[in-house]
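Blinded run. Sample ID left blank on purpose so nobody reads anything into the name before looking at the predicted structure. Input follows.
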Amino acid sequence: MKLWIKKISVVLITFMALGVYIPPTYLDTSADNDEIVSAKTNFNDDIFTPVSEVEIGNESEQEEIDTDEYLIGIITEQAKEQTISKMGPRIAKQVEDDFSTSILPHIEQVVRDILVESGKEQFQYYGISEQPSAGYGEKIFHLYNFKANTDIAKFHVRRENRPGDGYWFNFHYHLKNDNFEEHHSIGEVFWAKDTPPKWMA
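Blinded prediction complete.
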């Protein structure tokens, strides 16, 4: 419920800040003198130009697109933060280059694709779980529908010890469509030959 209220308030504040206030057209900001304009002054009808319905429709469509992109941006940013949090400072420092160039952009793209595919009617109720599993757990975050209280996608990272090759981090996700059975690969990052520390360490 808390996340829903936050999203609604952000949308309303954005709407109010970006398009509700329209200054009166009789104010002339480039006036040469500082005369006060009274409300009783007669104005030409030429000053006021009617706004067509088409323009209003385009503006509302543009606001809707901006709002959708804004919500998608918030969710993808939360996903990115949870992924960075999962790595922890010790692991992140060693794998930072590969992680930030190949894994994070791919995770953001997958989250964006899932949200766009689901449609605005659904993704307005989507959120990111806030606590990745520490220790040796695989969970990075889950994308879930808080209205229906169901998971949509599960993003995980697994440690793999390949003999003679060292430790690798395998990033993947599972989808609700196949009952979370299939591993959809995001990418892999090499750690080293020695054992990596626990997650979030």
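Unblinding after everyone has recorded impressions. Residues 1-201 form one domain.
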